[in-house]
Amino acid sequence: MDIVLRATDDYFFTPYVYPQSWQRDDIWRQIISLSLIVNIGGYLLYIIPTTLDYLFIFDKSLMKHPQFMKDQVKLEIFYASKSIPLMGALTTIVFLFEVRGYSKLYDNWNDTPYGVFGMGLSILSFMFFNDMMIYWIHRFLHYRWFYKYIHKDHHKWKIPSPFASHAFHPIDGFLQSTPYHIYPFLFPLHKATYLLLFISCLQQPTLCSSSVSTCGPSRYTTATSACRRCCSRSSTAPRITSTTTSITTTTTVST
Ligand SMILES: [Zn+2]
């Protein structure tokens, strides 16, 4: 995130927002800047891909399904819009530790003894770590109290549209993103790789919410277990054919 913070400092915050006397490494300046970046970026990375997905990929015949709720798209957008600021606040805290140098992120591929090979290895290692942790966090969220108060809303959308991608309880959304944040504090990771993996992780739920077909290639990127869960839910959910209203499959998966 310090790549993004540096760029926004150079081209926006320093010339147009903050007084010249305010040092870039002041913690309060970093908190304000990161909050703005995370929240504005969060909304843009939610609404732009989901809108494109809804317009060009999402199978709209699913909206005729009996389990697709009245005004569901509006509800999904409203729910996600409410959750993003709190998810953003929690994420800002993690990014603050990162930009203040507490992580194992590095700038150049030759900063580690493994070079480019190490960068490739870290991507595989990240995918393994992320998938495994999300699986266990999701299982943990299905314990009674956590399910009732935190995770239940995640399963409210039986037939999700792309706009359900960020429609979590904010604690749920943040917890499911923690593997991504924890990894660079435990293992070395190139900063650019970290940024790309972050954007990939943000887009994963959108791809999974859109349709079964989009899950194909995304199975081989990050957050694959999360994707498979969504995909299995989508692929086994009751379907309606476009020419009739008969349900062709009646199996649903509740997890
Ligand atoms: Zn669940």
UniProtKB/TrEMBL annotation:
<feature type="transmembrane region" description="Helical">
    <location>
        <begin position="77"/>
        <end position="97"/>
    </location>
</feature>
<feature type="transmembrane region" description="Helical">
    <location>
        <begin position="117"/>
        <end position="137"/>
    </location>
</feature>
<feature type="transmembrane region" description="Helical">
    <location>
        <begin position="31"/>
        <end position="56"/>
    </location>
</feature>
<feature type="domain" description="Fatty acid hydroxylase">
    <location>
        <begin position="124"/>
        <end position="200"/>
    </location>
</feature>
<keyword id="KW-0472">Membrane</keyword>
<dbReference type="Pfam" id="PF04116">
    <property type="entry name" value="FA_hydroxylase"/>
</dbReference>
<dbReference type="InterPro" id="IPR050307">
    <property type="entry name" value="Sterol_Desaturase_Related"/>
</dbReference>
<protein>
    <submittedName>
        <fullName>Lathosterol oxidase-like isoform X2</fullName>
    </submittedName>
</protein>
<keyword id="KW-1133">Transmembrane helix</keyword>
<dbReference type="InterPro" id="IPR006694">
    <property type="entry name" value="Fatty_acid_hydroxylase"/>
</dbReference>
<keyword id="KW-0812">Transmembrane</keyword>
